[in-house]
Design a protein that fits this description.
By secondary structure, the chain is mainly alpha-helical. 62% of the residues lie in helices and 6% in strands. The chain has a 6-stranded mixed beta sheet, with helices on both faces. The protein has a two-stranded antiparallel sheet with strand order 1-2. It is extended. It starts with 7 loop residues before the first helix and ends with a helix.
């Protein structure tokens, strides 16, 4: 039977040649490699469909041609396939025509040897596959596949097990050209042989049901459980399993599980064998292998004994490593139990703590004790240095980076002691080594030690990096941007004498940016330095405060938060007024940016009605009243105005109210507190007084504004500037206040917003849960939790969400807090 309409190789070559002949009509001239691509695509379609019809050739020709030339490509393909018949008779009558396949390699003058070789390979493969397919009629294979499938569905033996072996993917019968039961049996044997070692339990069950002829093949399997299935006799399988249990618990568990899933042992036998395996567990290594083999976790009663035995036999390090692997796979906490058992045995050394690193409070305390014992002795210089390097090498072995850093951090005083005891000739080399650590020795201390050894200060400062030199040069030359200068100051952390030098250079150049960078770096230090220079520069204090408005406004707020409470009272009010104006300006700009304007209110009402005796005179609308009198045609000079002429705004139930609880505990310091203040000021500007209540909480609750207060913006900003990050996170009092606020209002929607890191005091949880439940029962508000992305307690967040069924939002960048709050407001309005 002919299955190919036109030889694919000849078509590909002729199509490319015809396209290349018509260079003037096409945009993209095809290379000879296009013929290889077309031939491969046609060959792949032939292998998938078992035939090629004209539509296949036309489709491949078009899709391999750029869009601009596809019309010409279609026309050329049809001319090659049908010649002149294309115009006279059309394509429809020819779609089912087939001719004998021919492999012709001609017209190859422009083709390189690589392309010709590839085309020859495709032609040869096409010829072989065509001959194979033509041996068997597709109709015969389809009929045989259908018969096998129908008999399998009806449950007829052995067809049902054949279908189970192939997982009901019986299309392989058609693909392999199988038309008889003998061919199918041969293929099944070949399939089993090729898949030995990776057969599924259901497939092994089917093989066993198909009879000894097929089951016997399993004895050549590389895995034990398939070999056991080949035994056939149930009693022999049970006896063999008992032998394996005595020899290898992990292998026994895997085999028991597989044979049970293959229905070769009963549920009762499975339970009995599993119980026996777990009773044989003696070490944590056995437990790990049994867990892996069983594929599930099961409580072990004698786990304490198993861990003790494991520590004796395997040692603490290997026991801890296996326990960590079990914890990782099954979500347990065995490594902490191992840690406790090792500690109870006593005599724990630093080497042991490195091997069983859990990095909890107890582990850190033990590390501190071990380090104290090691370095508490009176070493000479060489012994101290050798012991230090030994401990550093141990720290590198910790599998937890934080633990390694902790040990090295605890050695900071040891590094200074080594420098003190070192001879002057080794001082700089040692300092270079220590500067490679994550935590560098304090510069001031090193300078003091260096001074006693006659080491020049400039040489030590240069070793701490070139940035300090760059900073000094930028101030001497009066160059650099505000951001670059501030970044360098924060990295260098200059001493007081260097700050005085930098301040003198900034005043000499009269550079606002250089003064602003110093002021925002540490205003307290700068003012102290400025007092010493007042005789040289009388206006230095005024110049410093004037420069603080340079750079982003957020920097001035940060300066206030960091230094406003510690600065000399003489200058505090001046700094506060600058910060207050900046905070209001920032809040207004963010309100305009995210809401389109800084006008108040998110739910205005324009409904009016006639004045009634119980109406509030403050609600009278002058414009509406005048329009009403004019429409009535009443002359007020002749006819007095009465109540029916007056129009008032109708009081409406508020659409939405926001009650905000913001965390200012010690963990919410500096930048977080700054952006919280900006966000709250933006809310105070944008929302109506009756739409907004806010409090801050730490160990105590600070009420910024009650829902029924008419607090002015200036007063709110003053309160915001007086906030300090302090205390712990005690949310319950803030929730008690929130419940009281929600009780006072009647609104269509109520939103309770809590912004915190949710590191809540443990003893506060009972009250937090009580108030949250009361709020949900009495008001059912929309609860939204906000937390900084990198630093919040996920357990605390989940506990709250389990109670309120609210929404949690991670703030990836604290600077985006105003935008996040504006999106929340717009969502509910």
């Amino acid at each position: 039977m002919n299955r190919i309409f036109f030889d694919p190789i000849s078509f590909a070559i002729r199509f490319v040649n015809e396209m290349r002949k018509r260079k003037e009509l096409i945009t993209n001239v095809p290379s000879t490699r296009r013929a290889t691509a077309i031939a491969k695509l046609l060959f792949s379609r032939f292998m998938r469909k078992r035939e090629l019809i004209p539509e296949d050739y036309i489709l491949v020709a078009v899709v391999t041609t750029p869009y601009e030339d596809q019309k010409i490509a279609r026309k050329i393909a049809m001319e090659i396939l049908f010649g002149e018949k294309t115009e006279r008779e059309g394509i429809a009558p020819l779609l089912t025509q087939t001719i004998k396949p021919k492999v012709i390699l001609d017209e190859l003058e422009d083709y390189d040897i690589t392309t010709i070789t590839e085309l020859k390979k495709i032609a040869l493969e096409l010829l072989i596959r065509t001959q194979e397919i033509n041996k068997v009629s597709p109709l015969d294979t389809l009929k045989f596949e259908y018969n096998v499938k129908m008999k399998a569905i009806l449950g007829e033996h052995p067809y049902d097990y054949i279908a189970e072996l192939f997982e009901w993917k019986l299309h392989v019968i058609r693909e392999k050209g199988i038309t008889s039961m003998d061919q199918l049996k041969h293929f099944i044997k070949d399939f089993i042989t090729k898949n030995l070692g990776c057969l599924k339990p259901g497939q092994v069950r089917a093989i066993c049901k198909l009879g000894r002829e097929f089951r016997s093949i399993l004895k050549y399997s590389p895995v034990t459980w398939e070999k056991l299935a080949a035994i056939g006799s149930h009693d022999k399988i049970i006896a063999k399993l008992k032998e394996i249990i005595e020899r290898d618990l992990g292998l026994a568990t895997s085999s028991i599980r597989f044979l049970h899933e293959a229905e070769l042992i009963s549920d009762e036998e499975f339970d009995r064998f599993i119980d026996k395996v777990f009773s044989k567990v003696k070490t944590i290594q056995d437990l790990y292998e049994v867990y892996l083999g069983a594929g599930y976790f099961r409580e072990v009663e004698n786990v304490e004994r198993i861990i003790d035995e494991s520590i004796l036999r395997l040692g603490p390090k290997k026991t801890f490593k296996i326990a960590s692997a079990i914890d990782l796979k099954f979500g347990l906490n065995l490594k902490d139990i191992v840690f406790q058992h090792v500690i109870k045995r006593g005599g724990v050394k630093l080497e042991d703590l490195v091997d069983i690193c859990v990095y909890n409070r107890e582990w850190r305390e033990l590390v501190e004790k071990c380090l104290s014992d090691i370095f508490g002795r009176d070493y000479d210089y060489r012994s101290l240095l050798r012991e230090y390097r030994r401990v550093c090498a141990l720290a590198e072995k910790c599998n937890i980076p934080h633990a390694s850093f902790f040990i090295k951090k605890e050695l900071s005083n040891v590094r200074l002691e080594i420098l003190r005891k070192s001879p002057p000739s080794n001082f700089l080399n040692l300092l270079k080594e220590f500067l490679g650590e994550l935590e560098k020795p304090p510069l001031e201390e090193v300078l003091k030690i260096g001074k006693t050894k006659g080491i020049p200060e400039e040489q030590i400062i240069m070793m701490y990096g070139e940035k300090i030199e760059i900073l000094m040069k930028m101030y001497e030359m009066g160059i650099g941007t505000f951001d670059d200068l501030l970044s360098l100051l924060q990295e260098v952390k200059p001493r007081q004498d260097l700050i005085e030098r930098l301040l003198r250079e900034a005043m000499r150049h009269k550079s606002e940016q250089h003064l602003a960078a110093l002021g925002h770096y540490n205003l307290t230090q700068i003012i102290n330095a400025a007092r010493k220079l007042e005789s040289e520069f009388p206006d230095i204090i005024d110049r410093i405060f004037g420069s603080l408005t340079a750079g982003p406004g957020e920097n001035l707020l940060l300066t206030w938060i960091r230094h406003g409470h510690s600065i000399d009272p003489k200058y505090r009010e001046k700094l506060k007024q600058l910060a207050k104006q900046i905070l209001i300006d920032l809040a207004r700009s963010y309100a305009a940016k995210y809401f389109g304007s800084a006008g108040r209110g998110v739910s205005p009402s324009f409904r009016t009605r006639l004045y009634l005796y119980d109406s509030d005179a403050d609600m009278i609308s002058i414009n509406e009243t005048i329009d009403n009198i004019i429409l009535l045609g009443k002359n007020p000079l002749k006819f007095p105005v009465d109540y029916s002429d007056i129009i008032v705004h109708e009081r409406e139930r508020g659409r939405i109210v926001f009650v905000c609880n913001l965390d200012i505990s010690g963990s919410m310091a500096d930048l977080k507190l700054c952006w919280c203040a900006i966000a709250v000021a933006m809310l105070a500007i944008k929302l109506q007084r009756e739409e907004f209540a806010c409090c801050f909480f730490e160990s105590n609750t600070h009420i910024l504004k009650d829902i029924d207060d008419e607090t002015e913006l200036d007063d709110i900003v003053d309160e915001l500037l007086e906030l300090k990050a302090r205390g712990g996170t005690r949310l319950s009092r803030a929730l008690e206040w929130s419940l009281y606020q929600l009780d006072k209002i009647d609104a269509e929607q109520k939103v309770l917003l809590i912004a915190s890191d949710f590191c809540i005091w443990r003893k506060d949880w009972d009250l937090v849960e009580k108030y949250l439940k009361d709020i949900c029962v009495r008001h059912n508000p929309n609860v939204i939790l906000l937390a900084p992305f990198h630093s919040y307690d996920r357990v605390g967040v989940q506990k709250i969400l389990n109670i309120v069924n609210g929404q949690f939002i991670e703030v990836h960048d604290i600077k985006s807090l105003p935008n996040v709050l504006s999106q929340i407001i717009r969502r509910f309005t």
